[in-house]
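Pipeline run #58 for the internal structure catalog. This entry was flagged by the ingest filter as a single-chain record with no existing model, so it goes straight to prediction. Upstream metadata was stripped on purpose; only the residue string is passed forward. Reviewer on rotation: M.T. Logging verbosity set to normal.
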Amino acid sequence: MIWKVSGDIPSIKNTLRRAKSGHFYHVNDSVAVYKRIFDLQTPKRFKVGIDGYVSVKVTLVRANKRKDPLNCIDTVADCLENSGVIKNDRQIVCWEISAKEVNAKDPYVIIEVEEI
């Protein structure tokens, strides 16, 4: 399965905070918005709920160099689970990550999921 998701991917690490009560919360809703964008741009034929192990290849084209690609990968894993491509992000046993370009006008992510 290979597809492209347009939009600047947020980093979960930079939006997650811990309250005095010990609970976690997001400083802004950028991750929730991106999850909806990801879900809308994921083809329905890929939303099969794979329950076996998978290998994921991600190519990031970020809006700027400041974002750490490894922090963005957490968002991708959550989005794959949220959109129904996989049942749980713990199923991802192999990652291949490439953050080769910066394009401020058209950031996107190319995702390739392969069942092992």
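catalog note: The chain has a mean pLDDT of 88.
catalog note: The two ends are 13 Å apart (CA to CA).
status: ready for reviewer M.T.
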